[in-house]
Amino acid sequence: MDIEHVIAAIMVCTLLVVIVLALSRASKTRLTPEERMTINGPGNYAIDVVGESFHQKELEQLDGEGAFGEDRECQAELLLDDKNKYDKNAVAVYIAGVLVGHLSRQIAPVFRRELQKHGAVRAFVRAKVFGGTKKKPNFGIWLDL
């Protein structure tokens, strides 16, 4: 195993520990029969949303409607995606009720277990949206977990 693989493995493990710690600090609020959590992350926006390249039109429309605010911060909803035909552990990411991507295959199973351990099927987290400019036309999303 070369050094790049070791570094990548360490980074994934570190992110998973951050997620578990954030979930353990999360405040759970019962608002509906499907419980939800609000996760107050450490403020580093270290979790990258994947698959947003498939949702560029939706992100462009949300940006045009001002859904991200001036500083490009917004709230994202993470929802267990049990009907995902590509990944049985999928966790979908929504902004303003619009699907904009998923958690990565490495992070989703850990997040899913922790969410279920707390009896929740959804969580709300802070998100930063970047891109959508002439210099960087494609949108991307980071989550504060």
What would a concise description of this structure say?
The longest helix has 23 residues, at 3-25. The protein has 3 helices and 8 strands; from the N terminus they run αβββαβββαββ.
Structure keywords:
3 helices; eight-stranded mixed sheet; 145 residues; alpha+beta; single chain
Report on the architecture of this protein.
- The protein is 29% helix and 27% strand.
- It is an alpha+beta fold.
- The chain has a single domain, classed as Alpha-Beta Plaits (2-Layer Sandwich), CATH 3.30.70.2330.
- Strands 1, 2, 3, 4, 5, 6, 7 and 8 form an eight-stranded mixed beta sheet that branches.
- Helix 1 packs parallel to helix 3.
- The radius of gyration is 15 Å and the shape is globular.
- About 6% of the residues have low confidence.
Strand coverage percent: 25-35%
Backbone shape: globular
The tally of strands reads 8
- How is the main sheet built? 8 strands, mixed
Number of helices: 3
The chain-level mean pLDDT equals 79
| CATH-defined topology | Alpha-Beta Plaits
Number of domains: 1
Compile the SSE list and pairings.
Blueprint lengths: L2 H23 L1 E3 L6 E3 L8 E2 L7 H9 L8 E8 L10 E5 L2 E5 L5 H10 L4 E9 L9 E4 L2
Parallel strand pairs: 2-7
Antiparallel strand pairs: 1-2, 3-8, 4-5, 4-7, 5-6, 7-8
